[in-house]
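Why do we bother with a discrete structure alphabet at all? Because it lets us treat a fold like text: something you can write down, compare, and reason about line by line. To make this less abstract, here is a complete entry for DNA ligase (ATP). Read it the way you would read a sentence in a foreign language you are learning: slowly, and without expecting to understand everything at once.
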Amino acid sequence: MREFAQLIFSLGTSTKTNDKLQALSTYFSHADEKDKVWVIALFSGRRPRRTVSGTQLAAWCCELVDLPIWLFQECYHTVGDLSETIALLIPDKNNTDFSPPAEIGGKLRFSREEANSPSTGGGREEAHPLHYYVEQFQQLEKATEPEKKTFILQSWQELNSRERFVFNKLLSGTFRVGVSQKLMVNALARTVQLDPSVIAHRISGNWDPATTSFDQLLSEQSTQTDHSKPYPFYLAYALEGPLQDLGEPSDWQAEWKWDGIRGQIIKRNDQLFVWSRGEDLITDKFPEYSILQSKLENGTVLDGEILPYKEGQVLNFNVLQTRIGRKNITKKNLQEAPVGLFAYDLLELQGEDIRHWALAERRAALETLITSLQLPWLQLSPIVTFNNWEELTTTREQSRSLNSEGLMLKRRSSAYQVGRKRGDWWKWKIDPLTIDAVMVYAQKGTGRRSNLYTDYTFAVKDGDKLVPFTKAYSGLTDKEFAQVDSFVKKNSLEKFGPVRTVKPELVFEIAFEGIAASNRHKSGVALRFPRISRWRTDKLPNDINTLEDLKQMLELYGK
């Protein structure tokens, strides 16, 4: 655990990609073999399931350090992170004069020198390796509460504050690390002398870190024995320059950018698998696709978008949300939220990896395949025809009426690459919807913003009343967040736990991608991806939009 904790803090204190790459490469060169497998799993989203509640952790910490729960809550509201609060409150073993490492504003912060130095622990013995703790977490699922408590209290006391923080993050299911999978793959490539695209493919799919060795995971055999293994998705960057910079329009294929779940449909060894872009195996979530098990040939992999689809029309994404997260899909769910698949690409044909083919060739093969299947819900993602860039610009304006987010531009000669690449695929999204609102509630953020009020609730007018309708916590600069924080502290009206009611004086423009009716919200609406687009210092609270404006947006764009 010591090496892993040091890696996490090295990554967390570095702002340079090359430094992060070096830290990862060094770790993969020297770490325990089983720990390396778990790091690959953790960094690619395979986190342990949460088996202990935050309430239990807080109570056990209070009992261990003899602290009243109200004081723990005050500490938590100041620090802004449960894992870090516990890490700071429990003294290190053999160090009764405990003081947390270099704090900045109450946050657990380490300088680069500290992050790269050996962990301190008052001369304690080396803690267990990472894989020991993570595999113990898995066993806790069936453990009794006293057994869980004993294990956790013992672990807290044998770890130092840095390791304890990482332990808590893993235990609580809130482990996140600011490192892309691409960076991790590049670090592995330095260690095992394999091409990054090969590594990205081999670490994908349905493998168990507890039973898979490092050598097995990265061997060619892993792609041969795991018939469910998906290919790494090819992702696009947002279009930055003018269309004319792309060259001749005839070199490009344009498609609608659909708002659904990107997925791969795989048929191998007489089995059907459905993977999401986040590498979740979601076959059981979409029983409609089961017919493909008999329709598709073995060795077929489709890339496409899972969309709510009925009677030839793509529906609003909020229809699909009624099925996401459900453990069991009922007949009623299937009727109320039917899905289709809009196929973008063909990645494997008759068992051959054809990602190196040009897009135009893959598209021709895809059209032949989809046409032969004759399934009404399985559609080719339509190509948007255009003769020049001006014509395509005009066509893009129809996006929202089709429940599309804009356009995708793909070079017709392009191969299907790994991860996010520049040059051959671009996404050209339409401008978001916006509305002006006033801030009415604020609470402190998390992480580096735990001492600032950065999470806000916004309201629109409804006659003489203000009706809250959304929350947002991104979109301002650090300087602007500091200014709003100062306003909140000077203009708080009421306190409800960590939440402050503030004078409704600051007006912001809120941007969002979609709007849907909602019975759970007082306003009757829910926004998709709300964020602050700008601080409207030029407007007064009387200038904000109304609830009626939101309802009109719902009528226009919420269908």
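What the structure line is telling us, in plain words: The domain at 234-429 is CATH 3.30.470.30 (D-amino Acid Aminotransferase; Chain A, domain 1). The radius of gyration is 26 Å.
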